[in-house]
Amino acid sequence: MFISIGWNNVVRAEEVVAILEYGQAAKTVDPTLAENDEADHVSAKSIIVTTDRIYSSPLSVQTLKKRADTTVPRMIEEDNL
Question: InterPro entries annotated for this entry (predicted)?
């Protein structure tokens, strides 16, 4: 399953390592490493770390968590079929 993270980016749910608040993540992760071309780092609210990339997102951590929570249980149910 996929999670829409904003700025026309979609990531595979199973590849997400962490979703961090932008202000806190900027202290430890260089936001310029984010690979989404359209990213406006001024309006970014979160950083999504995947197994191979780092993305910034205009969506809050809570919104992304809700999207992930609705996606991951669906993946588990599909695996059990």
Answer: RemA-like (IPR007169)
